[in-house]
UniProtKB/TrEMBL annotation:
Pfam families: ATG17_like. Keywords: Autophagy, Coiled coil, Cytoplasm, Membrane. The keyword Phosphoprotein does not apply. The lineage of its organism: Eukaryota, Fungi, Dikarya, Ascomycota, Pezizomycotina. Belongs to the ATG17 family. This is Autophagy-related protein 17. Residues 1-23, 247-273 are annotated as: Disordered.
Length: 492
């Protein structure tokens, strides 16, 4: 034919439905058979119509591919940026929570340490009895703990427990918020991972342009092949017109009167020599030999175009599915972004509660318990020093008493000596001195006494004798005093 089929799609002439001997003269019947075969081959025009539809559809897919590819890339980039922003917000909440948690654990440890120290001191007070000699007779045994305000310790403990409970409640609310945030992010990541990724490579981001080019090549080649069929058909018509009875024979063979009608209205064929006619018939016979191959090629190209369009549609469907999934991702991000405000508000409320309530309350509690422990340790030390002081007072009292007794004995001696001296003077000189020469001549000597002075702040003490005064300074046992001294020295 005028345009031979390409090597890729043509088949061997051995597979043709007709076998012609090019050297044998062609009869009218042969020409009619060629004409019928060529007319039948023109039915492949439906392939061209379909090819035209395929090309138009593929062109639309090509445009859609460009739009979807650009849109999906943009949405994916935006979604990744939004996910990064959400992750940053979540990490920010974690940072606040971690800082508070670390300090809370440290303060809780300090609270426990302070409370343990205070309890240790209170245990000492519970186990330290008041010496019986310091209490009125018949008084039940008391300990140092009985003299402290234990309600202050209990109230502070209740306050700190309530503070810790408030912290735990705020932390639980924060944990619930964070769990919801994490669940949303996990769902988002899972959905992101399940977004269908359209097959592509770095060198060929989309196969559609290449597929479209191949499809156009097939359409163009099919059109050229069909054009050769049309030319062959025209050549068959021309050959029949230049053959006597050709048109009638063709009409009878095909039952199509269109050729006969065309002959009636068509101008007479141009004169042709027998040599030209034989040459034309030779070309016709040669083309007829390739007719089936050309038809097969057209049909194969049509099938290949259908296959290529299927590949294009598959890729477009990937892009559409990816676009739909990315659209769902954006909706999820929009929803999570709206929820983030609540999560951040919960984190801020937790941090504010920590700064304004939990932290200062724990610090004040630690300070208060340290102060109480210091006070009660001083109380225990003061009691030990009191025992030492009582022993010292008793010792000084005994020394003073001895000195007073010694002084009284000296005064009594001097008084007796004065009496004897006066008596001797009276015996020696009394007869010679008139009594009115000095009114105090016969007076006895003045007596002096050493006695305990009544305590001024206790006016009733004048009614008690010296023994009652002495009872105000108890007599402590030696071991009691030694233990007290040991405790005092140990804490100095």
């Amino acid at each position: 034919m005028a345009s031979p089929p390409s090597p890729a799609s043509s088949t061997s002439s051995a597979g043709s439905t007709h076998s012609y001997d090019q050297d044998r003269p062609q009869t009218l019947e042969d020409l009619v058979n060629h004409f019928v075969a060529s007319k039948r081959s023109l039915n492949t025009q439906t392939v061209l119509w379909r090819a035209n539809e395929l090309v138009n559809t593929a062109r639309g897919r090509l445009e859609e591919n460009a739009v979807l590819a650009a849109k999906n890339t943009a949405i994916r980039n935006i979604a990744e940026q939004q996910v990064d922003a959400l992750e940053a917000a979540r990490r920010g909440i974690d940072v606040v929570e971690a800082e508070v948690t670390v300090e809370f654990k440290q303060l809780l440890h300090d609270v426990d340490t302070s409370f343990a120290g205070l309890n240790s001191t209170l245990t000492v007070l519970r186990e330290t009895p008041i010496e019986a000699v310091l209490q009125p007779p018949g008084t039940p045994q008391k300990h140092l703990y009985d003299f402290i305000d234990s309600a202050a310790v209990s109230n502070l403990e209740v306050t700190l427990r309530a503070c810790i409970d408030r912290y735990n409640a705020a932390r639980e609310i924060l944990d619930d918020s964070n769990d919801a945030f994490d669940t949303s992010l996990d769902n988002l990541h899972s959905s992101f991972e399940n977004v269908p990724l359209t097959p592509a490579s770095a060198s060929n981001p989309s196969p559609i342009p290449s597929l479209y080019q191949d499809l156009e090549v097939h359409a163009r080649e099919a059109a050229q092949a069909f054009q050769s069929l049309v030319q062959h058909y025209d050549l068959c018509v021309t050959a029949l017109r230049h053959t006597e009875g050709g048109s009638a024979a063709a009409t009878e063979a095909t039952g199509d009167t269109s050729m006969h009608s065309r002959d009636e209205f068509a101008p007479p064929p141009e004169p042709m020599s027998e040599e030209e006619r034989l040459e034309m018939v030779a070309v016709l016979v040669k083309d007829a030999h390739d007719l089936d191959d050309v038809v097969t090629e057209i049909r194969e190209r049509g099938s290949e175009m259908t296959f290529l369009l299927t590949q294009i549609d598959n890729h477009i469907n990937h892009l559409r599915n990816e676009a739909s999934a990315l659209s769902s991702i954006l909706q999820m991000i929009s929803q999570i972004t709206g929820e983030v405000k609540s999560h951040i508000a919960t984190s801020r409320s937790f941090h504010t509660s920590w700064l304004d309530d939990t932290r200062p309350t724990l610090l004040n509690g630690i300070e208060e318990w340290e102060n109480q422990r210091d006070f009660y340790e001083r109380f225990d030390l003061a009691y030990a020093e009191l025992l030492v002081e009582i022993s010292s007072r008793r010792r000084r009292h005994e020394k003073t008493k001895r000195k007073a007794e010694e002084a009284q004995r000296e005064l009594d001696r001097l008084h007796a000596e004065d009496e004897r001296a006066r008596e001797q003077f009276t015996l020696a000189q009394g007869d010679f001195l008139p009594r009115d020469i000095w009114p105090g001549l016969e007076d006895p000597p003045r007596r002096y006494e050493v006695r305990a002075v009544t305590v001024e702040h206790n006016p009733d003490s004048s009614q008690h004798d010296e023994d009652e005064q002495v009872k105000s300074i108890p007599q402590l046992g030696r071991k009691v005093v030694e233990r007290a001294l040991t405790r005092v020295k140990r804490r100095m």
